[in-house]
Specification:
Blueprint (H helix, E strand, L loop, with lengths): L1 H15 L3 H5 L14 E6 L6 E3 L4 E5 L6 E2 L10 E6 L2 E6 L6 E3 L2 E3 L1 E3 L5 E4 L2 E6 L35 H5 L7 H15 L6 H15 L4 E9 L3 E9 L12 H10 L3 E3 L2 H4 L4 H5 L4 E9 L2 E10 L8 H37 L11 H14 L5 E4 L6 H10 L8 E5 L5 H9 E2 L11 E2 L1 H4 L4 E5 L6 H13 L1 E2 L8 E2 L3 E6 L3 H5 L1
Parallel strand pairs: 3-4, 17-24, 18-21, 21-24
Antiparallel strand pairs: 1-2, 1-11, 3-5, 5-6, 6-9, 7-8, 7-10, 10-11, 12-13, 12-16, 14-15, 15-16, 19-20, 22-23
Length: 506
């Protein structure tokens, strides 16, 4: 049973670095490279396609530069393992590393090496080469046979042992922490490929985190804007499901995002007493781990507890880091899918709209010059004129010749949308903000990020929305309907009206 679990862990690690194929192929399926005898040839990991010659009696491997073979891989211990030579034989020994040493998929403490053995440590896989006449290959050929030979065994998808955690883990004690951790990792590996909705995915990830840690609150934060804001956040407590308000330390999240490291504090009142927000919230312990996609930190997972008896430890941090590694790409893809769907709606609304102004009269030429001067600035613009005189055409012309020309142009008619819906159209809403709000929705101000929002017939805007619009004009910040956090927006506002606003004010 231990061997099977070790092998499963090795395969999971290989999948996370997109190298399962390289992990399973034997030495006869690789392309030739330069021969160094004896040597380690790297087929997966940071040092891929390089070789290490074994010339000393003892050759250590680890992330510390002082090792004979230094590998820049945070999942390796500083001194991970050592290869020793005894005559013409070579032995590998694990140096009590954090993640272990695997030879041909089996975790070992010490074993003799044979030519062609695959050594897996962290995210790296080596092939041990000894024979002078043989070589390593990087890509093989496929040959097809038409004859079907009798199979020695058959397996249906529903019977795959390692895709059904209850079958694998039934042989472990019910209270085993290893069983709970493996069960959670298996569940996450399955759900990240089955859920496309970002909020649902984040809710499921946090639910599984609560299963394997004593954390009472958790949050997933994606895509920082500047140094202090996040483009998307999801938070909830252990009890119930769906979004809830969770106080998160900006000091901790900023450090995790900037350095790409995980942080654990088991005694916050003592170790982080200078972080005022944590002291005020009475937080006792916390863990924050980065979400990394293609060597870029795109967010973080944050959990904490205020219960002195529910202690978070290093094993919990290791578990959260593993969950972050498995789910980071799924979260990024889900976020991008959400953005693409919204962008598609915006582009569909704009398609086949006439943007160009026509006319060569002296009066039109004066208008063109004025529009050109206005377009170069970032000022808010008010266009006045009777209905049908082309105020929206002028607004689009300003946008086309401005520095924001490549960004969105979001138009909305304030007179054509009922008051109850107009706030949602402009500011968006959170999931559950009102009856029928089954998911989060961004408004025009967010969808036009970097571009222009055109408010036609602004004179029809009701007073309570005028107050909210004033904050947009002054601070360039909004709050979604049902939300409790401010969201910075980078937009230019162009408005139009067919009314005499000064007279209307009087």
């Amino acid at each position: 049973m231990d061997t099977g679990l070790s092998y499963w862990i090795a395969i999971t690690r290989a999948i996370s670095c997109k190298s399962l194929l390289g992990c399973l192929k034997r030495r006869t399926s690789y392309e030739e490279v330069a021969e160094v005898i004896p040597r380690l040839s790297v087929i997966v990991g940071p040092n891929k396609d390089s070789s290490f010659a074994i010339t000393a009696v003892e050759s250590t491997i680890g992330r510390d530069p002082g090792n004979a073979f230094s590998v820049s891989d945070p999942s390796l211990s500083r001194r991970h393992c050592v290869i020793t030579s005894e005559g013409d034989r070579f032995k590998i020994r694990d140096l009590d590393s954090r993640n272990g040493t695997l030879v041909n998929g089996v975790s070992v403490k010490e074993t003799w090496l044979q030519h062609g053995d695959q050594i897996s440590i962290g995210d790296s896989i080596f092939v041990f080469l000894l024979d002078e006449g043989e070589s390593v290959r990087a890509g093989g050929e496929v040959e097809f046979e038409d004859d079907i030979k009798q199979a020695t065994a058959q397996l249906r998808p529903q019977d795959v042992l390692y895709l059904h955690p209850e079958k694998v883990l039934s042989q472990l004690p019910a209270t085993s922490r290893l069983a709970k951790n493996l069960n959670a990792l298996l569940k996450i590996s399955r759900i990240v490929h089955a859920i496309s909705d970002l909020d649902t995915l984040q809710d499921q990830i946090l639910s599984l985190i609560f299963e394997v840690t004593p954390a009472e609150r958790g949050a997933i934060l994606l895509d920082p804007i500047g140094s202090d804001q996040f483009g998307a956040t999801f938070a909830r407590g252990r009890a119930g499901s769906g979004k809830q308000t969770v106080q998160v330390s900006r000091t901790i999240t900023r450090q995790v995002m900037e350095k790409g490291i995980a942080i654990l504090s088991v005694d916050v009142p003592t170790t982080l007493k200078e972080v005022e927000s944590l002291v005020i919230s009475n937080v006792r312990g916390l863990i924050c781990v980065p979400l990394t996609v293609f060597h870029r930190v795109m967010g973080c997972i944050y959990v904490d507890t205020i219960n002195p008896t529910g202690r978070l430890d290093e094993d919990h941090m290791q578990m959260l880091a593993a969950i972050a590694g498995i789910s980071a790409v799924a979260l990024e893809n889900s976020r991008r899918l959400q953005w693409l769907e919204q962008e598609n709606l915006r582009l569909t609304a704009e398609i086949n709209v006439e943007h160009n102004m026509v006319g060569e009269s002296p009066r039109m030429k004066e208008i063109y010059k004025m529009l050109a001067r206005v377009a170069k600035t970032e000022s808010t613009v008010l266009l006045e004129g009777e209905s049908g005189t082309g105020k929206e055409v002028a607004a689009r012309a300003i946008h086309q010749i401005s520095p924001r020309a490549g960004k969105p142009f979001a138009a909305i008619n304030c007179a054509a949308i009922p008051e109850g819906l107009l706030e949602t159209e402009l500011f968006g809403h959170e999931k559950g903000a009102f009856s029928g709000a089954v998911s989060q929705r961004k408004g025009k101000f967010e969808m036009a990020e970097g571009g222009v929002v055109f408010l036609d017939e602004i004179g029809e805007l009701v007073p309570n929305l005028q107050v909210k619009l004033l904050r947009v004009l002054q601070e360039r910040e909004i709050e979604r309907l049902g939300g409790n956090r401010t969201i910075p927006v980078n937009i230019r506002l162009i408005a139009a009206t067919n009314r005499d606003l000064k007279e209307a004010v009087k």
